[in-house]
Amino acid sequence: MNRREFMKTLGMSAAALSLGNFAQATSSRGNSDRPNIIFILADDLGYGDLGCYGQQKIKTPNIDRMAAEGMLFTQNYAGSTVCAPSRFTLMMGRHIGHARTTGQGQCLMPEDVTVAKLLKGAGYATACIGKWGLGQTGSTGIPNKQGFDYWFGFLNQGRAHFYYPLYVWRNAENFYLEGNQGGKKGGYVHDLFTAEALVFIKDNKDKPFFLYLPYTIPHAELTAPDDSMKQYEGKFEEQAYITSSEKAGGGTRGPDGKGYCSQKTPRAAFAAMVSRMDRDVGRIIDLLKRLGLDENTIVMFSSDNGPHEEGGNDPVFWKSSGPLRGIKRDLYEGGIRVPLVIRWPGKIKAGSASNHICAFWDFLPTCAELAGVKPPGQIDGISMVPALRGQPEKQKKHEFLYWKFKNMQAVRMGDWKAFCLEQKDKTELELYNLEEDIGEKNNIADKHPDVVKKIEKIIRSS
Q1: Alpha helices for 221-345 (secondary structure H)
Q2: In terms of residue numbers, what domain contains 356?
Q3: pLDDT digits (tens, 9 = 90+) for 286-318
């Protein structure tokens, strides 16, 4: 399937709309051109895991409705193929080549200018609710030191693999989940994230706000409450995921109570998790409508990287990468191309689609323009406001996009996509034309030495 064919299967036309002029930021709630901003981030949700992107087995009616009422992007990229570096690019407006590290050990510093700092300085109330991953306890990277007025969730991304934790953080204090003791399941943490988000919206309805809601679903451990499991139990052939500890006669977790839980119906659990998240996206949009904030709130939904295969999950069964090659931890398209749905009633044309090539580092300058503030210098992002306006002819384009993870690098340059693997004795560069080969099946590097030379120069300088 090539890109034209895939766009046709989506059944959506290119965007054609007008947002009008964006005014300079003021502290007045009455300035309707200065919207509330909500960014909802799924964890390890694949390009093909939503109905609006072709998913057939898992029901996602609310996010599909977001697409029907807003704009769907077909060429949006995460900042990395794993969580922490991807979130760094989102908060900082810089690609991963300009991070302090390209791996999971990210920690923001006092001098860093995040999206939250920009918007807080413009008079926005700011909150981060969910999974952070950019600074541990006592560090300079915790959300409250990076522009967020309110913080609730996981600091440690390792602990964020689980849905019945003993505690999460509320600002600088532990918030204990009642009932999650001794292996008992009292509070499903995803539900708490949604509850906190709804309260934040209600509490700040009379002033501009920025809500960053990085959910942990559907990452890692596959488990969901019974009311969500019922929708999918018995729907699929299952192969139980049993931990080595349980096989040896121990508990349902790995050694020392760590590792993912056993799951007799992993497919039903994965589908239930995605649908539960979708349900709560719908609850957020419904609240905006009830509060009269719907037309003054831009809601964005995406995922931090491609689909995972942990805890018994089977991305092949779900066709989680859609027509793309690869999954999480790959720098092929399936590891980094992710969904992006943006809804803003009255401003973004309903049912529109965009093939604009964009990435997480575009979020910061886009928010800056929406809020009427100047972005910091030395960023790699480009504001996507013209694309949202339905004015592709006015939308600036990236010369290239760049990723690095472990011994892999990748570059997107127009329709060209390069994948570079560094080995001990050699470096291999593969080249694909995504317009003709969206699945990256045909390496044509030997046929285009001029393109390879340009991309090698980008890799050396990034």
Answers
A1: 226-229, 244-247, 266-290, 315-318, 333-336
A2: 3-399
A3: 999 999 999 999 999 999 999 999 999 999 999
